[in-house]
Amino acid sequence: MIINRRVQTLDEFTIQQMRDFPHATGELSGLLRDIGLASKRVNVEVNKAGLVDILGDAGSINVQGEEVKKLDIYANNQFVGVLRHGISCAGIGSEELDDILVFDDEISNNSKYVCLFDPLDGSANIDVNVSIGTIFSVFRRITPVGTPVTIEDFLQKGINQVAAGYVIYGSSTILVYATRRGVNGFTLDPSIGEFTLSHPDIKCPPSGKIYSVNHGNFFQYEDNIRKYINVCQQKSVEEGGPYTQRYIGSMVSDVHRNLIKGGIFMYPAIKSKPGGKLRLLYECNPFAFIVEVAGGKATDGKQRILEIQPTAVHERTPFFVGSKLMMEELETYINAAPAEA
Ligand code: AHG
User: Which residue, by CA, sits nearest to atom 8 of ligand 1?
Assistant: First the structure.
């Protein structure tokens, strides 16, 4: 087989981007390469999940009080291992770890970035062959290079993200990452084991026809959210409707689809989870960054997600993200005064 040299690999792309910055050290390219490497290992295990004894519960409960699947642990260990032994990351925060992990060795202390991960999002879908994913977020540390990183390096507003991305382990495996310069997607070519540029310069359509929300929670949502969902269902053709409801239960896949096709994803507060379900640092910040760079919007219903000052690594938030015009319409309902009784 002759390799098609017209394809651009993830490494080639990030190095080419770096050349535009004469003072770039290549650390971010190295970090993205390491994340790509770890995700390829996770991908192999996800693909054979039905074949080996890696399916099922690991028998432990994670820090969120949720059941941990074996693949969650495997994925977490891969990202921790690859980044610990790489030269570009000073420490990580992970949805699977109680506390931040400070690598604290000479090479890591001299790295300028920290990473936050949801190593395997949508893990309830593992057993039933539905797409799952990894979400990541990269910050430049605040503390001086040469010292161990501390919690303040991780508790930064999302607006400070240097890069954010996700990997979907689906019908194909795709890695999408954003920097302030743009959002690009790379599909894993299994024949050469490389992520290759397949979705250059992704832009989120300003509007779309898809809304994604857990309808099972409908009667737990606030009135204004329920009104908006009703509007989604009642759109006429003249108003751009009818909308289609799509909800996989893997945010990575739901938001990816809406990013490409146009749409809105919502995980509002519910009575049993008044602070929302999704994690600000591991899930919402990275997607808010990616979607905003692509032209969309993301809020918690009151403010821009990227402007929330985190106070704890595992904090949760209501989350609304998607196409700009759809988000603006949602905001008119969220901001409307409650109807008089
Ligand atoms: P988890 O990784 O714990 O399975 O959570 C998945 C997240 C997110 O990806 C998804 O959109 C949402 O939780 C689904 O939650 P509900 O089942 O409550 O709708």
Answer: 251
What pLDDT does 26 receive? 86
Whole-prediction pTM: 0.93
Helix (H, G, I), strand (E, B) or coil at 314: coil
Task: Please give the distance, rounded to the nearest whole angstrom, from the Cα atom of residue 77 to the centre of ligand 1.
Answer: 21
Q: What is the Å distance from ligand 1's center to 6 Cα?
A: 38
Q: CB-based burial of residue 330 (10 Å sphere; 0-12 exposed, 13-18 middle, 19+ buried)?
A: buried
User: Quick one: tokens of 126?
Assistant: 């593992």
Q: How many CA atoms lie within 13 A of 219 on its CB side?
A: 0
Do 10-199 and 210-334 agree at the fold level? no
Query: Is the CB of 66 within 6 Å of ligand 1?
Result: yes
Residue 59: pLDDT band by 50, 70, 90 thresholds? Answer: low
Task: State which ligand 1 atom lies nearest to the alpha carbon of 247.
Answer: 11
**Residue spans per domain, the chain:** 10-199, 210-334
* Atom of ligand 1 at shortest range from CA of 123: 4
Q: Return the CATH class of domain 210-334.
A: alpha beta
Average pLDDT over residues 52-67: 60
Is residue 249 in contact with ligand 1, taking CB distance under 6 Å?
Answer: yes
**Among 3.30.540.10, 3.30.2290.10, 3.40.50.1000, 1.10.3570.10, what is the CATH number of 10-199?**
3.30.540.10
Q: What is the pLDDT of residues 81-124, one digit of tens each?
A: 999 998 899 999 999 999 999 999 999 999 999 999 999 999 88
The C-alpha atoms of residue 163 and residue 28 are separated, in whole angstroms, by 9
Q: How far is CA 48 from CA 124, 191, 268, in A?
A: 17, 17, 34
From ligand 1's centre to the CA of 250, what distance in Å?
6
CA of 258 to the centre of ligand 1 (A): 16
